[in-house]
Write the structure tokens for this entry.
Amino acid sequence: MPVYSKTDPCRVMAVSVVYDKRNNRRFTSRDEGRMKFVLCFCSSVLHNTLSYQRERYLKSQTMSLLNVVEVLFTHMDNMDLLLQKIMEQAQELANAERCSLFLVDYDAQELVAKIFDSAVSDIDQPSAEIRFPLTQGIAGYVASTGDVLNIRDAYSHPLFYRDVDLSTGFRTRNILCFPIKNEDGQIIGVAELCNKIDGDYFTHEDENLAMQFSAYCAISIHQSMLYKDVTESQQRSRLANELMLYHMQVEDTEVKSLSKNPIMKPYEIGATFHQCSFLPRSIIEDETPAACMTMFQDMNLVKKWKIPVDVLSRFVLLVQKGYRNPLYHNWMHAFSVVHFCYTLYKTCSNFGFLQYGHFVCCVDC
């Protein structure tokens, strides 16, 4: 007799079979009525039990995924270690014997595995990089189509490559292969699980769990790649700064030579030094740092900002040394711009539009 669902009277939840009535008698309509009465209560109990088991399963699944997130998101600074952890977590979630993980290299149209197999790889001594065409084998098919492949019998599937088993001695029984997609839907990797431990094959629930898991994998891999790019960019920037600073070192002797004498007055450089008619390029380049210091003092910046003379000397020399010598944007061009701002300050009554900071920016640029 059918056991109908309490929430949906048209859905059969189970079937009850009673056989061999005692004393060799036949079942009567009265027996049927009793069975229907009993099964009404069984339906409620069965429904509640299944709901409770389902709730426990979902809770366990959620906790497992949260643990996965915690593990993956703490290893994003090391791509090889992250891939190793992804395979370990995938094995544990699906209860599989082995897991392989491949990243997609679209430029080369290849699948790449730096850590080929979680059962044999050692993060301290990673296996050699393995590459094969993007469309080859089961992983290639999944990478090309984005479909999930749940293969119950690996040896009967046309895409299965038996030579791997022959060379390793491992026997592949069943396979669950699924794509790893980023937020734009692009496939960035493929994971391949082999041999369900507590069953004859991977179930539909394993497929759903794998796709949920792949979302977290995609986020962690993407963030790890971004972290790697940012780190490499910072390293390049740091190296460039170090090289620049190395070539822009100002010797203490140069600073002492510039700062040992009192800062000159404008008229000592030229009678019209503070006027627009003065030609800044008439000053030889070696004397321009001293002229810059004159402008700083004449604008009262040295006193206003309490700048030590040796600090100002080093600043001017460092800026001068930072300029290369192209035809146009060279040190003499910069000095001419600074002098122009200085003459504006000296000759214009409405100097409010040109602030001190603008003058210093001109010197620094």
